[in-house]
Amino acid sequence: MTQANLTILVLYYSRHGSTRKLAQLISQGIESVAGCDARLRTVPAVSTVAEAVEPDIPASGAPYVDLKDLEECDGLALGSPTRFGNMASAMKYFWDGTSAQWLGGVLAGKPACVFTSTGSLHGGQETTLLSMMLPLMHHGMLLLGLPYTQPELMTTSGGGSPYGASHWAGLNGTHEIPEDTRALAIALGRRLAETALRLQEK
What is the pLDDT of residues 123-172, one digit of tens each? Predict the structure, then answer.
């Protein structure tokens, strides 16, 4: 009897597409590890207008996340663009609704990592990464970063840090993801998947 592959949830919010592209690279890294599958999910936008609603199914891209995705995952990569040095409100809104999963400990002991993109070079990449770690810590997740054994951390000029993968996207996401950032995002996904496998062996 063959054992089912581990499911690694890649959950992101993206406005102009750069964070989505990072999510796809992280998924590529996850799926480069035998025995692991990436599950791409997003969150709907929130609006300051109370009557505005998003359709039940996104017009394009990944499906919306469901709380059962948290329960079914063996690891999590969480991504958001920066909003004044913090995660986007759409992502925060989702995590604010996970009290039942927190009480049930469904994420406790599972590995996690974070990633972000910014419109400006000093737009708060590292503070956004740290802000996304906070709810994951409250859920009891095991946080992973990028070690300096990844040589691209010493050469990247537009993103990437020991806290997670990041990208300077420019206004409206006009900057393409450079090779060093691509390598770091793939490496982060691979590290997350390898860690999830090791934890299952114990």
Answer: 899 999 999 999 999 999 999 999 999 999 999 988 889 999 999 998 88
Q: Residue 12 pLDDT > 70, yes or no?
A: yes
Structural domain of residue 67, as residue ranges?
Answer: 6-201
Name the pLDDT band for 56 (thresholds 50, 70, 90): confident
Q: In the chain, how many domains are there? A: 1
Q: Is residue 87 part of a domain?
A: yes
Q: Is residue 80 part of a domain?
A: yes
- Does a structural domain hold residue 139? yes
SS3 annotation, the chain: CCCCCEEEEEEECCCCCHHHHHHHHHHHHHHCCCCEEEEEEECCCCCCCCCCCCCCCCCCCCCECCHHHHHHCCEEEEEEEECCCCECHHHHHHHHCCHHHHHHCCCCCCEEEEEEEECCCCCCHHHHHHHHHHHHHHCCCEECCCCCCCHHHHCCCCCCECCEEEEECCHHHCCCCCHHHHHHHHHHHHHHHHHHHHHHHC
Domain contains 1? no
> What CATH number did the domain enclosing 53 receive?
3.40.50.360
More confident residue, 120 or 110: 110
Q: Please tell me the pTM assigned to this model.
A: 0.94
Is residue 125 a contact partner of residue 116, using CB atoms and an 8 Å limit?
yes
Residue 130 neighbours by CB distance under 10 Å: 17
